[in-house]
Amino acid sequence: MGDKPTSTTGNATAPTTLTARENPAYGRHMQDAEMFTNAACMALNIWDRFDVFCTLGASSGYLKGNSASFNLVGLFGDNENQSTVKTNSVPNMSLDQSVVELYTDTAFSWSVGARAALWECGCATLGASFQYAQSKPKVEELNVLCNAAEFTINKPKGYVGQEFPLALIAGTDAATGTKDASIDYHEWQASLALSYRLNMFTPYIGVKWSRASFDADTIRIAQPKSATAIFDTTTLNPTIAGAGDVKASAEGQLGDTMQIVSLQLNKMKSRKSC
Fold it and tell me: What is the DSSP letter of 242?
């Protein structure tokens, strides 16, 4: 990103050089992360004590979190007298007072695992299990709920490994070098439980450990916009004049709206749970 704005009044020249700044996504937690799976299971039983199994099915997901977790950024306060920002301008604002949510499509998923009765004594049994699951659904819908730049994208595409500045055509129908946004989902689970058979009932007590990760190759997705200005605008971002005024055709005419907005789908891991 560019330097953080420091001007107390008016606008300033848009930054064109990258400056090291603290990553607002570090240490952030998702508000909600869910994966839904429907699958069929096939198992091989060995000596009535061990099961080796696999599942085949379909999964879909939902993620929701603070926009800082997705590195939502934009350019504010551009003082240039032109209808678009310069090609080498970089964002200077991190938008962390909003919400980003995404839905994935339904994609093929699979898992493998094993279960075993480790110890038996009368009606008591100590068992353990392990399972690993994987799926790679594409992002079906991306919603950015932000007062300064609110937008929705169906089947978003973005840039992988692309540093700032993004091309000015990013977010338009003419954008090139983009790929579909997809999430590589991995999860492992391990459990240990003690059960006791009482006629028709088998109460048990146990503990389960699990860890999930969501990896989208840190793809950066630009806000949709028009390739050419229509009614002097390329996006529907609101004007934020504050105590100043909105310029029509003078220096700072772009300064009161958020420009070159984009976000990044970072790699996320669940906290180890049990």
Answer: T
Q: What angle do CA 225, 137, 149 make, to 5 degrees?
A: 25
| The token pair that represents 235 in the structure block | 């996006």
Collect all residues with Cβ–Cβ distance below 8 Å to 269 and sequence separation of at least 6.
Answer: 211, 212, 213, 214
Six token digits for residue 134: 């994987």
Whole-number Å distance between alpha carbons of 4 and 15: 9
> Considering the entire predicted model, what is its pTM?
0.86
**Each residue's pLDDT tens digit in the chain (274 positions)?**
888 887 776 677 788 888 888 888 888 888 898 999 999 999 999 988 899 999 999 999 999 999 999 999 999 877 776 667 888 889 989 998 899 999 999 999 999 999 999 999 989 999 999 999 999 999 999 999 998 899 999 999 999 989 999 998 999 999 999 999 999 999 999 999 999 999 889 999 999 999 999 999 999 999 999 888 777 778 888 877 665 565 666 665 676 788 899 999 999 888 765 5
Decide: residue 22, CB within 10 A, 0-12 exposed, 13-18 middle, 19+ buried. Answer: exposed
Q: Which tokens is 181 given? A: 């946004």
Residues 240 and 254: beta-carbon distance below 8 Å: no
- Is residue 109 within 8 A of residue 39, CB to CB? The reply is yes
